[in-house]
From TrEMBL:
Residues 62-91 are annotated as: Disordered. Keywords: Copper, Membrane, Metal-binding, Oxidoreductase, Transmembrane, Transmembrane helix. GO terms for molecular function: copper ion binding; oxidoreductase activity. Belongs to the multicopper oxidase family. The lineage of its organism: Eukaryota, Fungi, Dikarya, Ascomycota, Pezizomycotina. Pfam families: Cu-oxidase, Cu-oxidase_2, Cu-oxidase_3. This is Cell surface ferroxidase fetC. The keyword rRNA processing does not apply. The chain crosses the membrane at residues 34-59.
Amino acid sequence: MGKAGQQPARLQLLDEKKEIPATEAARTGRGRRLFLFAGVAAGLIVVALALGLGLGLGLKHHHRGSPAATSSPSPTPSPSPTNSTASESLQSWRRDTAEYNLSMDWDINAAPTTRVFNLTVSEIQAAPDGVMRTMLVFNNQFPGPLIRVNQGDRVLVNVTNQLTNATAVHWHGLYQNGTNWMDGTSGITQCPIPAGTSFLYNFTVENQFGTYWYHSHHSTQYTDGLVAPFIVHSPEEAAVQKDYDYDQIILLQDWYHDLSTALLPDYFASGNENAEPVPDNGLIQGTNVFDCSSYGDDSGYDCQNNSTQATFAITQGKRYRLRLINVGAFGEFQFSVDNHTLSVIEADSTLVEPVTINRLPINIAQRYSVILTANQTATNYWIRSWMNTYCFSDDNAPILNPDVKALLTYTNTTNEPTESADWASALDIVCEDLVTATLVPSGITPAPSADVAYKIDVAFQIGAYALDKAYINSTTWVPETIPTLNQAVAGLHTLNNSFSTSGLSTAFDQTSQFVIDVPNYQVVDLLINSLDEGAHPFHLHGHQFWVMASDSTGDFDWSTYKDLNTTNPMRRDTLTIDAYGWALIRFKADNPGMWAFHCHISWHMEAGLLMQFQTRDDIMKDWTIPEDVLGLCNG
Ligand code: C2O
């Protein structure tokens, strides 16, 4: 390995011949779809007829008139309490999120133990914001149950799938070092858990602590409600614990009134120019109000004005750690609390030097901890989670009210705030992260120099079947029937050389699997170059990466490579690549397995915006994937 700041030993610009030209036309305006095949128009009609994709039935119609749930049975309202408030009596499908208020009595120094959790995945009818819909949930309630462990604990999660479809559960941000097959990534690290069966996830949480979450990693399922927090404590947390008196998880998410599977056909329809389904609402702690009058009587939705905003009660003089997790599908939020500044202390499980802000941008799958001090007049204030509609192709007005709110109360009341003042600072109209340079990890970890660098291009194109698909170079991901992990381990066993060649793997079908093979330990630089007009929150499984450089314009200038800050760059697992922007990230390919790197926007992953790293073949070649994991493929 060279000295810090030198050129990487090898710079591989993958697949350059097939790279999509970043023409000026491609970089301007919305009309930037790149047609791969000439006969698209003719092909489109044939495919539309064949698949019955219902072209022309846009989302608007869907919302304003035509009966909604095309694929789901008409919802039956659950008996709702008429004479009690939500705080007195919860609807049976609504989780009591008191468990998200983390008891400070938890022993962060406890000896490692085994913790067992049971998760049932099922379909229910529920109305988080008053609009009844079909949802997919853990343990019959929404949002999902907290998993709380200590670093060093063994975690057993028995997942029982009561859906009519297969599922898989991913632990977002956990390294899974040595247990790649427990990563829960359908088509990559496992076959999904068949309907009507159970699977035991069994892994140890090592060398990490902080705020994580778990969610379905099968198609767009998590968008329908399969989300929950996963908290890891550690003795090392003592240093920050002294800065707060209470520890509170807050889930933020965008929300749709239809099943994600009902929204996909319109999204993929070829005339659609990658116009993602725009959320109908936003939730804080799994709840919000919705104005039913924005739906006509014939909307097909069962809408009751009976839901409430979340309420957080605080005590004057106390300090609150708020662990914010964006568990949504598409929308970035700007989180703020009226009259209260926020001190950021954690981003994606990396503790950072405190930085005081008024508004915090938080993109899909990212986590931030902020400390709020109850030092204002003891009354009620708004917590705001403003959904950044500038990230959307359409504002979905008047249905979507992007000013998603919850109540902060010093008086334990639900009175409308009267003295609450939103910050004067303007809302950000671009979808981008908190400037990376403002985040300085409090545990100093220099970035080692890179051994190899790869560059990928990210774009949307109308593909071979006239579907609107996402591409990494010229690959659009489609999950394999046999997980790529199973294929790689089998290939390495038989000494099939195509499974252990460094660089872009030829062992897989490159039209659907973009796999970079890093056979032995190396430090990898990945330059992600976006040719798309939208921002993309990219997530790397199994690792944290250093954010070496990024910008919202132009291309990375390799002549600056030797000057990159390697002293203590920010480390995280989910980073927004700005519209037409780029980012250079670095990670140690020291964790054996198949690791997804993908845009976490539900719609984009489903559109194929996913690649994989195959790392440490030297270890993988000796692996035996457990029988129960392999058995999932026989279901
Ligand atoms: Cu939150 Cu690929 O995952």
